[in-house]
Amino acid sequence: MALQNVEWAVSPGLTPYQPALAFMEARAAAIAAGGASELVWLLEHPPLYTAGTSAKPDDLLAPDRFPVFETGRGGEYTYHGPGQRVAYVMLDLTQRGRDVRKFIQALENWLIGAAAQFGIEAGIRDGRVGVWVNRSNGHEDKIAAIGVRLRRWVSFHGIAFNVDPDLSHFTGITPCGISNPLYGVTSLADLGHQVSMADFDIALHLAWTDAFGDVTRAGPPQLEPAQP
Fold it and tell me: Which site among 28, 117, 129, 176 is 20 to 30 Å from 144 CA-CA?
């Protein structure tokens, strides 16, 4: 799935969720209208929970712990916070055969490739979204989540890869609706890899090039202030 003229932008610090969502939706609409380049946008959010279109109320275990945002992406509840690399992927699938399955597989391969650069063997699992690693005694942990939405065949939302977040923050939800005690959440740090976000971004960029193709560096998006 070779892509052309895709911009790659990184926002420093913590990016509030609502302005990020507003920017994403506007950029996706502009891409669909032919008025903007495709974009991969890397950022970190302050601690928060988001609810996908399949989220079940009972899976929000601590509703008052962090802000909760309803979102139009696929999936159930997920956590975002410092130490987790979020990448919002805004691509025009009309130019790429409108093959959603192939697009998701490319995202999976991207994340698997990023993990492999740290010697981590990650992969997908039947019936469970995201990218997983094997642990001991039959346990498996998710290291990266995928949740995307398409509008006029332009993707937005994207992925979240756990570099070194506070894993206790995931206990306020049933992550992605998966309550089986054999399945948990992990991170690079939890697996013994102390990696800066800047170094992880290098790995993420290299893996993107392998999975999708070249990108063009761009400055971080300018966001409107969050509404009170």
Answer: 28
